[in-house]
Design goal:
The chain has 622 residues and is mainly beta. Helix content is 5%, strand content 59%.
Length: 622
Amino acid sequence: MNPATPLAVLAALLAMPAAQVQAQTQTQGSDPDDSIVVTASRTGADAGVSVAGREAVARRQPATLLDILDELPGVTAFQTGGPAGGSFLTIRGGEPNFTTVLIDGVRLNDPTNSAGGAFDFTLLDPLVVERIEVAPTAASAIHGSDALSGVVQIITRNSAAAGLHPGGQGWIDSRYGGAASTSLAAGWNSGGVIAAGGHYDSGDGDPAGTLRRDQLFGHARQTVGSFRVAVIGLYATKRGTGFPEDSGGPLLAVERSPERTSGDVSLAAVSVGRDPAFKLRPSLSLAWSVQHGDSAIPAIAPGVLDGVPATTAHDRFARLEGIATLAGDIGPATLSVGGAVLREDGRSTGALDFGFPLPVTFARTRVTHSGFAEATVRGPAGLTLDGAVRYDTLQGGDGHWTGRGGLRWQVASNGPRLFAHIASGYKRPSLYALGHPLIGNPALAPETSRSIDAGVEIPLRRGQASVTVFDNRFRNLIDFDAAAFRLVNRARVGARGVEGAVSLGLGGGWSVAGALTYLSLDSATPLRGRPEWSGNLRLLWARGPWRADATLRGNSDVNDSAIPTGARITPGHLEGDTGLAYRTGDNVSVRLALRNIGDNRSWNAVGTNAPGRSVRLSLLWE
């Protein structure tokens, strides 16, 4: 099938003004625990954050959050292989390791792994997620290093209602295993607590591999006088098998021995912040996390490209971060100033098999001190201005300034809103890039970015719409130099395009929602996994206890590469799902879904088919 034709149809369906899908633009301060949760601003600035809510998780019942993120405008997300494959997530053309990933404000990126600091989304259970927020512009002025192209904030469930609330949810798939979780929440006037546990097993139906995951999670909050205290804890572990990245997968790989991987993440965080009703609002947060990763990867036989020797790796990364802020209101302005200290410790031991084991070991520690200031000023005639500046200095090293500015103009009450943002970002080289004894380079400089966007949000009678134009520039990017056999700074990439989405009620219980993104890249070499066109369209119906939906997703051709094939173009594809749900009076929902109706077997990775058609039965009790 030529993807241009169906995608043209999809584009025509979404040619009306588009808006951010599944939710509205989100302003800060709406979350009851926003002393911990900060995505785009500490001063209430609206930075065009797009949101996927709990409804999206209930509808998709995904194995990982990549399925949910892929439905948001400007975002492409998928697994590069089977169930335990790598996580690929790009925001407006950026690399996967250009995005800061947070859970309730706690950083999750691991700079010790070979992915350069990208986060492995197979570690997290989607069933404990309340919503996901994506800020699609450089956010180093808020979060420091790593937020080169944007931020993904995962916000977990909490107990908001008084009383005791047991719950459970899960699904089983005709071909791809199942998942289950249970939770117990308790709420009272001044706080609440929730504890949850979950398990996922991909089963043995996917020839690309297997994945098993377990997770324990807890979240507590309490009001003490005028202060809010929030505590979270998480432990997640996974183990999987599959084909090595770029090996050609189950269809093309010559070496058939499986790759074996395992990993875990443990984190704890506490935050204290004054109630937003007070004019002067101090806050303090402290977060600790440890991640482990173990892999035994077989050799990849040579093909069009040179082969790769077998490797083993045992990684450990620990992070400790403290953030203190003081926010206040002065007339029409909201101001915030603060500082942060971040300590990162990473070490890796392993070996390459060249017929004899060659040890590959490194260990590095770095400490970053930061100071920042933010302001939002609400002016006359519906005009709002916001700005932020931050300085990060590496202990014993250099410093880096970043900034962000934005404006919004509410043309009329309940009328369109115009907006524009400009921001700079930077990313320090990962500990892997600095310390790897074979290809690492201690002289690597930080990668940098500049992002600009502008657009309009249009309220509709039964929905909303918006269109956003963006232009990003990434400089000093880290690349592998084969002649020098080391990592170097040299690449420059430009990414510009248009994105949007729409949500519209049609009457009679019917509604429609969708997203469409056009991306144009300026790069000396083809960039993998970034289609020129991508989008989705959903039709939903609700009446009484019944819910039904049908979804169409598609993208144009993408560049890819693998050792057996060399560089190649993977054709675009269309894929559709449909589902029917019934909710009883006991707050129990039963859903039956037909996934990948057309049995599309396109490749997200060379030689690895996408999951085929299956039937999924899910149950939700809350």
